[in-house]
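sry for the spam today, last one i promise. struct tokens for design, 158 residues
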């Protein structure tokens, strides 16, 4: 007998209902991390981490959010290959994307000093702290969406 993955996913935990204080804390952390950051940069970071984590739910959500914020299709298509398409992104965005990759893949090689230094050269301490917090937050959201079986295209914020 074949199990329909959509049916299995519908039976998984809903963190917002099962642990509302935890969920609200995560929402608050996310909001605090975004404060003062360029909305386009926020979406680029979230998109890249979602690529790396194979989180279709979050990738769909954040590419849509980026479009609504005025991001163009060329840049959205190039996020996954930003190193090969650097001319689509500012130096600051490239530094943030490199940091996003290092933090998301922290188990592979830690966060190399050169990657951290490059980000620190483009962001003041407060911005860098928020960028790091944002990277941590999207990685948490990705893991939550993947472990609870969220389905791309079913953005529950609406």
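last one done:
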């Amino acid at each position: 007998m074949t199990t329909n993955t959509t049916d299995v996913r519908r039976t998984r935990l809903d963190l917002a209902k099962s642990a509302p204080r935890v969920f609200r804390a995560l929402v608050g952390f996310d909001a605090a991390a975004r404060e003062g950051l360029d909305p386009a940069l926020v979406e680029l970071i979230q998109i890249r981490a979602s690529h790396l984590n194979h989180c279709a739910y979050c990738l769909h959500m954040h590419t849509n959010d980026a479009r609504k914020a005025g991001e163009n299709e060329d840049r959205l298509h190039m996020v996954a290959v930003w190193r090969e398409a650097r001319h689509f992104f500012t130096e600051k965005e490239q530094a943030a994307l490199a940091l996003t990759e290092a933090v998301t893949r922290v188990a592979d090689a830690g966060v190399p000093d050169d990657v951290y230094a490059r980000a620190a050269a483009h962001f003041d301490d407060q911005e860098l702290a928020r960028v790091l917090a944002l990277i941590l937050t999207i990685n948490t959201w990705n893991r939550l969406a993947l472990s609870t079986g969220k389905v791309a295209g079913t953005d529950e914020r609406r």
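Residues 62 and 68 are 10 Å apart (CA to CA). ok im logging off now
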